[in-house]
Task: inverse folding
């Protein structure tokens, strides 16, 4: 009898253990399935990015997914978060900046889709036209390679400097200047300091969004706009292997909605500062 009792207990153990593993596996599968509906999203902490990200999360939810987002101030950190796989996508940059990051860090980021164009140009709080710029005028420009060349192209188009022939635009630097009749001085600063540096400079490079933050309107106040062909659209970036993935498609479908378009203008009190890419 005792032997039969032991055998029964062993048989019960052999039934319970596989069942426990099966239940555990089901739980893991459910967790994986739930996680597969989550899109981890790193966004810039500037107002327009924050405003549109919050609306984007609502639109993503309508499509059966959840957007888990965080706001970061550092552009490098935003890209590293996606490159490492910690986040699926980020929202803060245009393609030239991303390409510069890829080259410098041997990274694998790619543009999933375009979101909007933030026009750029030269602005001033001291002068009404470029003709008023004095000899030795100080011009504030961004110091990152993805934006630095744009300032020199704008100045060359305006006739204030001349650049070497045959230099690829994106490779233009201060050393590419061969004529500078007004002896312009260039103050290279971090992108985040452009608005503040304009207080000291005679003129400076600004995007329309940054100009709006200091009450300058692109259509009214820009002294020299950037050529349309050099206007780089902002993008949602993912790792290269995630281009065309289901989550990338969900993000694009959710972003390209009237609700997000409205958020782009609402972020600037109804003014159309940005040009949507759809």
Result:
């Amino acid at each position: 009898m005792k032997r039969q009792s032991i055998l029964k207990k062993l048989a019960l153990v052999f039934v319970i253990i596989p069942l426990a593993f099966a239940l555990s596996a089901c739980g893991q599968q459910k967790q994986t399935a739930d996680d597969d509906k989550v899109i981890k999203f790193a966004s810039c902490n500037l107002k327009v990015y924050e405003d549109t990200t919050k609306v984007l999360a609502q639109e993503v939810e309508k499509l059966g997914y959840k957007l888990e987002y965080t706001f970061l101030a550092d552009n490098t950190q935003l890209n590293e978060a996606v490159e490492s796989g910690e986040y699926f996508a980020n929202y803060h940059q245009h393609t030239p900046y991303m390409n510069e990051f890829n080259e410098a860090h041997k990274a694998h980021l790619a543009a999933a889709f375009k979101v909007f164009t933030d026009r750029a140009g030269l602005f001033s709080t001291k002068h009404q036209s470029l003709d008023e710029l004095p000899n030795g005028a100080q011009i504030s420009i961004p110091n990152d390679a993805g934006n630095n060349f744009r300032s020199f192209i704008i100045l060359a188009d305006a006739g204030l400097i001349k650049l070497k022939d045959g230099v690829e635009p994106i490779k233009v630097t201060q050393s590419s200047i061969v004529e500078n009749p007004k002896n312009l001085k260039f103050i290279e600063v971090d992108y985040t300091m452009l608005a503040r540096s304009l207080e000291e400079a005679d003129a400076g490079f600004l995007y329309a969004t940054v100009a709006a933050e200091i009450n300058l309107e692109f259509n009214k106040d820009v002294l020299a706009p950037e050529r349309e062909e050099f206007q780089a659209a902002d993008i949602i970036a993912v790792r290269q292997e995630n281009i065309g993935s289901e989550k990338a498609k969900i993000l694009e479908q959710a972003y390209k909605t009237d609700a997000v378009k409205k958020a782009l203008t609402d972020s600037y009190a109804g003014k159309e500062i940005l040009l949507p890419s759809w």
The CA atoms of residues 50 and 194 lie 20 Å apart.
